[in-house]
Amino acid sequence: MTNAMELYQMLPKTNCKKCGKTSCMAFAVALMARELTPEDCPPLKEEPKYKESYEKISGLFKPSEGATETGLIVHEDLCFGCGNCVVACPVNVANDPYGVGSGNAPKNAGKLILTIEDGIVKAQNVGECRRFGKNKILCNGCIVTCPVEAIEFV
Amino acid sequence: MEKNYYVCTGCGMLCDDIEVESEKNIVNKVHTACRVGVAHMKEGRESAVFRVDDKPVDEATAISEAAAILKNAKNPLIFGLGTSTNETQKLAIELARKTSATLDDTSSFCLGRVVEALLQNKFKVCTLDDVRNKADVTIFWGADPSDSHPRHLSKHSYFPRGTEKQRGWEEERTAIAIDVRKSHTAKICGNYFFQIPPGGDAEFIDALIAGLSGKLPKTSYNFPPKRILELANILKGAKFGVVFVGLGLVYSLENLEPLIRLMDALNEKANFHLIPMVGHYNMRGFNENLFEETGHVNSVKFEDGTVKHGPEYSIVESLKAKTVDAALIIGSDPLSSLPRSVAKNLLEIPVISLDPCETLTSRRAKVYINTAISGVESGGSATRMDGVKVNFKPVVETTRLSDEAVLKKIMEAL
Q1: Are B150 and A82 in contact (CB < 8 Å)?
Q2: How many domains does chain B have?
Q3: What is the pTM of this model?
């Protein structure tokens, strides 16, 4: 992915404050953190001379549009539902040790983060994910167990 | 709350924890199953199809035509049955006896040899539940369950917590892949992936046995001896080891003697079991049912109350030698799966195809009867890859006949 400086280079750099941020650099940082989207910069969106930059920046953020709050993306075309991530996820195991933790069907699907539906992994309750919240850690249980790299964090 | 679980008959693992949402006999949503299982469960169609000479006919005509073909044939071939229930397979064996048929299934060019050796007690075996509860070292040899049996690692062999394996896969389990290419399973095994050249399995087994007894392991393809010794050390320390034998290993070996030697050597130092990676959901069932009746697992010929057995009665050899003069194919597609030079001989004889799907074989068959998908639209029992019997009920209802019902009707017509 890119960094805030690269994004800044593509912005109008006029510090017009129409986006609500104090400067274009601040806007670039907010973009990086996904607090704002490229559409939040009116000149970038509307003025024809920035059209190329606008398309470029939008293109950069396109792949992560489907990401949840934790940045988790499931590439549904790659996933084949083996369930490795479902069984390996530490939160899933803690919340449902005799169901998915033991390799079986979920006994309490409402409390899980990852479940398999129609042969594809679905993410829910992402707030429970260990990569989220105040005491977050860089857990990668679901990534290293995936044989086809269908799960990604951005 | 007790949930209503179904059994998935998509592959040899027979996962028994599938939840299905269906409405008006159409499967809408499948929970927990992998993509293979979901595709299998959603395959169902409404109406039955009966065809003779590519023209739609009614049920009675198709059955009587099929019976006539079998009656007129001197040596019909009955083939398939890997995706049929135990009950159907027993009927088919009876039918073969009645019609003096050659009876074979896909295991003759698949894992039949291994299952035969298993049934003759040449290997120590265990169930998949033992694997989940106890196994600390699992070897996938010439097999890629991530693709062939997607839930294998997550349901049984690597990731789940078992009664004696509470701390999970990172600490308590070692998965080893031995294969000719870096498969998806090998990727998960990480550093414990041993890549050997095609056909190098027998030599690798010898080297590994040497390594187990502390000798310097040598291979003609210069596999680093250090790595073989490292592998041997892991295997020696196994408290409950399992070797999952895939087609890659079976195809590479001339006979099973090296594998038997390896298992004996492993069991001298540690505790190792063997499970064949059966693909079709009830191939092992067919092998066991036929073994019970005749003492052979496949490739048999019934004649005047006696049973002959040998490679010449397998589908490949009997088609090659053109010794069969009709074929009843149940739930299999030999025209697609056999080599062209062999399969083309099928076109010269009348073929009856019983299959839930349209296949190349069914399209070229003289009689085609569209059957219910067993495990989805019809129930029964089957034998899992590890020999455990699993009973299942249909998920949805259908007007199509099960292959068991069709066989019964054909036998009545005979």
Answers
A1: yes
A2: 2
A3: 0.86
Interface contact flag, B162 A102, Cβ < 8 Å: yes
Q: Which of B230, B258, B276 is the last residue of a domain?
A: B276
The DSSP H or E segment spanning B333 is none
Question: ipTM score of the complex?
Answer: 0.87
Measured over the CA atoms of residue A54, residue A60, residue A63 and residue A67, the dihedral's sign is negative
Instruction: Return d(Cα B327, Cα B69) in angstroms, integer.
Output: 9
Task: Inspect the interface and report whether the beta carbons of B160 and A103 lie closer than 8 Å.
Answer: yes
Provide the domain limits for residue A85. Answer: 72-153
Minimal CA–CA distance to A71: which of A30, A27, A129? A129
Measuring CA to CA, which residue among B335, B273, B354, B274 is closest to residue B62?
Answer: B354
Phi, psi of B14 (to 5 degrees): 45, 60
Q: Do A119 and B37 touch (CB under 8 A)?
A: yes
Chain A residues bordering chain B (beta-carbon distance below 8 Å): 79-84, 86-88, 93, 97, 101-106, 109, 115-120, 145, 147-148
pLDDT 10s digits, B95-115: 999 999 999 999 999 999 999
- For residue B25, is it within any domain? no
Smallest Cβ distance to A105: which of B31, B34, B39?
B31
* Residue A127 domain flag: yes
Containing structural domain, residue B144: 112-276
